[in-house]
Amino acid sequence: MAYYVESGEPALFAGDALFAGSLGRSDGPGGDASQLRDGLSRICRPLDDATRLLPGHGGPSTLGGERRLHAFLR
Q1: What is the pLDDT of residue 10?
Q2: Domain count, the chain
Q3: Cα separation of 7 and 51, whole Å?
Q4: In a domain, 15, yes or no
Q5: For residue 74, what pLDDT is reported?
Q6: Any idea what the Cα angle at residue 66 is, between residues 6 and 40, rounded to 5°?
Q7: Strand partners, 11
Q8: Please, which pLDDT band fits residue 60 given cuts at 50, 70 and 90?
Q9: Is residue 2 part of a domain?
């Protein structure tokens, strides 16, 4: 699950779905990496590159930075 906040500086709270530099967790019960990538693609595609990414673990990033690393976000 991810939450997008528009007020002030746009931010995507990605939880364990997307980490800075890495795809999130899909190895738990019922996890599906393909479904995770597809869902993130639908969520992130309309958002601006400057949108801050705030993952559940690790430091912040931007969607523009993650798009350069992950083809499914382009």
Answers
A1: 95
A2: 1
A3: 12
A4: yes
A5: 75
A6: 65
A7: 5, 52
A8: very high
A9: no
How many other β-carbons are positioned within 10 Å of the β-carbon of residue 12? 24
pLDDT per position as a tens digit, 27-49: 888 888 888 888 888 889 999 99
3-state secondary structure 2-65: CEEECCCCCEEEEECCEECCEECCCCCCCCCHHHHHHHHHHHHCCCCCCCEEEECCCCCEEHHH
- Look at residue 19 and tell me if it is in a domain: yes
In a domain, 36, yes or no: yes
Domain containing 58 equals 8-73
Instruction: Give residue 15's identity as a one-letter amino acid code.
Output: G
Tell me how far apart the terminal alpha carbons of the chain are, to the nearest angstrom: 20
Report DSSP state, residue 69. H
Q: How remote is the C-alpha of 61 from its chain's centroid?
A: 10
